[in-house]
Specification:
6 copies of one chain form a homohexamer. Chain A folds into 2 domains: 61 residues, AhpD-like (Up-down Bundle), CATH 1.20.1290; 62 residues, AhpD-like, CATH 1.20.1290. In chain A, helix 2 runs parallel beside helix 4 and helix 5 packs antiparallel against helix 6. Chain A is mainly alpha-helical. Chains A and D meet through helix 6 and helix 7 of A and helix 4 of D.
Chain lengths: 135, 135, 135, 135, 135, 135
C-alpha cells in the first residue's frame, strides 16, 4: 500500500533537506525511530519541512494545553476523518505521553457522542440560538 | 431553517417525558435556558431522553478528563463534521467553562493541523508502522 | 448565498436543453415547482441533464425499495455530509411521501447511532471479523 | 491493526459488566458469535454497556421501520464515513436479514447519487427554497 | 475484504450487459486491464452501465480541463473522503497521464492546506464576505 | 454568526503581528480588501502568521500547477468538507483568476462524480488492485 515510496535512511542521507528534517525529528524526540509518515513525505522536501515545522510548533512548543490533551484532540479529529494511519500513530503517541485506559475510554465516549449529536443537529438543521452568538 | 419544529416551554409542559427532560436540563445546568437542540429533539421523546442521558454521563459525570478538556474535544469533532450548530454551542460552553483565548488558539491550531496531516496521510496512504501495533 | 446564479423560468425557456429538463421535472412530479438545486445547475446543461436522468432512474424508477425508503437513505447520507440544502429538500420529499413523525424519529436515531459507532470503530480501528468476509 | 486489544471470552468472563453484555449479545442474537467491535470496546465497560443498550433500542426494538430498512440506513451512513469495519459488519447483517442483490444495488445507487448531489449542492451553495421551510 | 464479489472475465462474459461494459472499458482504454472497481460493480449491471457512462463523459470527453488536471481534482476529493481504493487508482491514473513528482507534491500541499483552512473556517464559523456574493 | 470576533483595521493596526500580516495580504494581492477569514484568525497571531505563510507558499509561489488549477483543487476539497466560507471564497478567487463557466461546470462534474464513486468504493470495500501498488 501507499502512493509514494517510503524513503530509507540511506536515501534520506543523500538529500540535505530531507536529512536535516530526519535529524531534527530524532533529536527532538530523543529517539532513532522515524515513522512512515515522514518517510512517505520525503519525496516532497518543501512539504516535509513545512509539515514538521508546524508539528513542532503546534504539538511540542510550550503552551496552555498540556501535551497529552493535544494528542487527545488530534485523535478525535483523526477518527472522524477515518485516517487509519493518524489514529494509530497518535493513539500510540498519547499512550507514550501517559494516556490511561480510563482517559482513552472517556475520549472514545466524547468522540462517539459528538459524532452522534453532530449527525442529529445536521439532520434537524437546528438554528443557532441567539445566546451563542457573542460576536 | 430546521427540519423539525422547536418546542416551546408550553408545548414541552404538555408531554410528561419532554417536560421531565427539560426540567432535568434546567436543574442540572442551574439555568432556565434550554437551547434549541433539545427543543428540536422534543418531537422524539425516546431519542431526547437517550441523548440527554448520554450527554450527562459523558460530559458531566466525574472522570479523568476535566470538563473543559471534554468541550475542546467536542469542538474538534464538530468542526470536522461541519456542524454549524454544534460548533457554536460547544464553543459557547467551552467559554462558559473558562476557555481562554490562548486555549482556543491552541485548539484551532491542532484541529487545523490534524485535518491537514489526515488529508496527507490519506492521500499518501501511508502504511502503519509496526511500532504502532501494540495489540 | 450561492456560487452560481439561480435561473428563472424565463432564462430557462431560452435554452432548449435547460427548458427540456425543467419541463420534464414538472411533468414527472406533476407540479409547477422547480426547486433551486435545478436552477443552480442550469448554468451547466450537460451536468443538469445527467443529474436529472440519474435522479429519475435511481429515485423514481420501479424497484425493490419503496419511494419513502429511498428518501430515508438519502436523508441519512445528506446529514452525514452536512449538506444543508439536501437535508431540507429530502426531508420535505420524505414528508410528501408520507413519512410519519415516528419514522423520522427512528431514522434520526439510526443516523445518530451509526455516526457514533462509525467514530468508535474508526478510533479503535477494529479489525474486520473473518465471519463478515463472505467473498 | 487496532488501537485497543480484543477481549477473549476468557477475559470477558472475568469482568462481570463485560460478561453481562457479552451474554446479552448472545441471548439477543441467538448466536455464540460476538464480533470484534464488542471485543474492542470491552476495555471500556461503561461505554460498552451504553453502546449495546443503544443498539438494542435503536436497531432491535419494535418500531415503524423494519429491521432490514434500518440496516440499509446504517450501511449508507457507514459508507459515507469510510468506516471499513461498519460497512462490512452491517452489510453482513443486512444479508442475514434478507437483503437481496437487487436491494443492495438500489441502496448503492442511492448512496452514490446522494453523495454526488451533496457535493454539487455544497459546491454550488444552493439556497434552501422557502417551500421546504415548513417550520 | 469487499462486500461484493469481484467478477472474473468468464463471469462477465456470461452477462451481455456486463460484457458490453467490460468490452468498452478495454476498447476505450486500449488495455486488457479491467480494475476491481468495475468487477465489484458487475453484480449491479444498471449501476455499472450508468457509472461507466458518467466516467467516460466526465473524465474522457473533450473539454476545457486537460485529463491530468481532472485526475488531480479526483485525487483531492478521494483523499478527503478517505477512499483507499480511489486514492490508489486515481494516483496511478494521474501518473499514467504524466503527473510528475513536483506536481504530486503541489497537489498534496494544496489538499492538505485546504483541509486545514476548511477546519479553521468551520471551527470559527467565519461569515461569508459580501464581496464573495456575486449572485 | 462566528465563534471569534472579526478584527477591524483599527484593531489590527494596534497589534504589530496582526498589522504585519494584514499589510502583507494587501501588498501581495494588490488590493485593500482583507477578507473575513483573516479577520477571524486575528485573535490568534501565531496561527494567523503561519496560515498566511502557508497560503503564500502553496497557492502563490511559482510551481508546476498554474494558479487557477490550484484554486480548482481547493474548491474540490472545500465542497467535500462542506465548508461554506471556503467554497464561496475560493470560487470567487477562481473566477478572479479567469475560471470560465465551462471550467466551473467540468469541475462540478468531477467533484460530484468523485464523491459518488468514493461512496461506491467505500460501500463495496473494493480491494486495491496489485497493478496500482507501484511502491
Amino acid at each position: 500500500m501507499g502512493t509514494a515510496k517510503l524513503w530509507t535512511d540511506e536515501e534520506a542521507a543523500a538529500d540535505p533537506r530531507v536529512k536535516a528534517v530526519f535529524d531534527d525529528i530524532r533529536i527532538t524526540r530523543k529517539s532513532e525511530f522515524v515513522n512512515n509518515f515522514w518517510r512517505a513525505l520525503a519525496s516532497q522536501p518543501a512539504l516535509l519541512e513545512r509539515t514538521w515545522t508546524s508539528i513542532k510548533q503546534v504539538m511540542l512548543a510550550p503552551g496552555t494545553l498540556d501535551p497529552l490533551t493535544r494528542e487527545l484532540i488530534y485523535i478525535a479529529v483523526s477518527a472522524n476523518n477515518a485516517c487509519t494511519y493518524c489514529v494509530h500513530s497518535h493513539t500510540a503517541a498519547a499512550r507514550a505521553k501517559g494516556m490511561t485506559n480510563e482517559q482513552h475510554g472517556e475520549l472514545l465516549a466524547i468522540v462517539g457522542l459528538a459524532a452522534e449529536t453532530n449527525a442529529l443537529a445536521n439532520a434537524l438543521q437546528v438554528p443557532v440560538d441567539a445566546e451563542f452568538l457573542v460576536f
